[in-house]
Amino acid sequence: MRAAVIRDGRVEVEERPDPVPGPDEVLIRVRAAGVNGADIGQRAGRYPPPPGVTDVPGLECAGETEDGERVMALLPGGGQAELAVACRAHVLRVPEHLGWEEAGGFVEVFATAHDALFTQAQLQERDRLLVNGAAGGVGVAAVQLGVAAGARVTANTRHHHDELRALGADTELEGEYDVILELVGGANLAENLGRLAHGGRISIIGVGAGARADLDYGHLMYKRARISGSTLRSRTVAEKEDVLRRLEAFMRPHAFRVPVEETFALDRAQDAYERFAAGGKLGKIVVCPSWPGVSFV
Ligand SMILES: NC(=O)c1ccc[n+]([C@@H]2O[C@H](COP(=O)([O-])OP(=O)(O)OC[C@H]3O[C@@H](n4cnc5c(N)ncnc54)[C@H](OP(=O)(O)O)[C@@H]3O)[C@@H](O)[C@H]2O)c1
């Protein structure tokens, strides 16, 4: 199969042996795979794959199983290739309303956002939710999940205000928030604490703009605030399965969308990473292997 690989800080495409699924795994003929911050970190040499995981990047993909079923999967790596192996427990059926490109960029960001909002931060109906970094993949997922849960959602963003309002969010910051989802970095902490309601929760998921912050304990105590952080990739198979089953149950009555800013053929994976790193996008960047009958620019 052809697969993306990282060589000297660049993404190249090379021939690799087809992966062979184990007893609890499924083989997926990949139609589309999302690019994530973790891939950019892997390309830069600062986020290597965990021990025992393929060095082919790609934490999510969508495609067909050997039985022809349309699936999308959370992966420890390996999505940006013609074939990927997924743990059977980490596979979801692709909802009817999603095409391949959207499905390819769905699982990592929706699973991360769902876990951060509901399991970590205990988001409730009518809570006021602030999403910092709302125009990216996780942010757009969090906005939709929050709106679907009946929360009052504010999207904090530098771009795409109209599109985020169309998804049901306000884009003017005003008053206090019960839950703040942090997708940007430590520099936001003081402002987050200032905007947090008493008993509020800050859920830290992304630190792309810096992981250090100065914390005023007194402010934290006065607000009776809780700050939590989490990562998805480092969890056990069973823990990830739990995250996915909760997401699956929540998403069933909704038709969530994945805005795809740009799609690249697998052969142009390096360009896809460059586009992701350039910022200013809405939602996802997706790479697609070129199977017969499917063509991408
Ligand atoms: N903990 C986990 O398990 C987990 C899982 C998935 C992702 N993540 C992390 O979560 C973060 C969000 O992921 P993503 O896929 O949504 O990434 P993304 O698509 O790149 O989105 C990041 C968003 O944050 C904004 N942003 C970045 N730096 C900013 C700054 N200095 N000020 C204001 N806004 C800024 C970006 O805006 P611009 O486009 O204007 O730069 C973009 O809209 C990333 O750091 C990612 O690595 C963590």
Brief account:
With 297 residues, this protein is an alpha/beta fold. Helix content is 28%, strand content 27%.
Give an overview of the whole structure.
With 297 residues, this protein is of the alpha/beta class. The protein folds into two domains: 2-106 and 258-288, Medium-chain alcohol dehydrogenases, catalytic domain (Quinone Oxidoreductase, Chain A, domain 1, Alpha-Beta Complex), CATH 3.90.180.10; 110-229, NAD(P)-binding Rossmann-like Domain (Rossmann fold). Helices cover 28% and strands 27% of the residues. The protein has helices at residues 37-43, 100-104, 107-120, 137-148, 161-166, 189-195, 217-222, 237-251, 269-278; strands at residues 2-7, 10-15, 25-34, 60-64, 70-74, 83-87, 91-93, 128-132, 152-156, 177-182, 196-204, 226-229, 260-265, 284-288. The strands form three sheets. Strands 3, 4, 5, 6, 7, 13 and 14 form a seven-stranded mixed sheet that branches. β13, α9 (269-278) and β14 (284-288) form a beta-alpha-beta unit. α3 (107-120) crosses α4 (137-148) and α3 crosses α8 (237-251). The two termini are 20 Å apart. The relative contact order is 0.16. The structure holds NADP nicotinamide-adenine-dinucleotide phosphate. NADP nicotinamide-adenine-dinucleotide phosphate (NAP) is lined by residues 36-38, 108-109, 112, 133, 135-139, 158-159, 183-184, 205-206, 208-209, 230-232, 279-281.
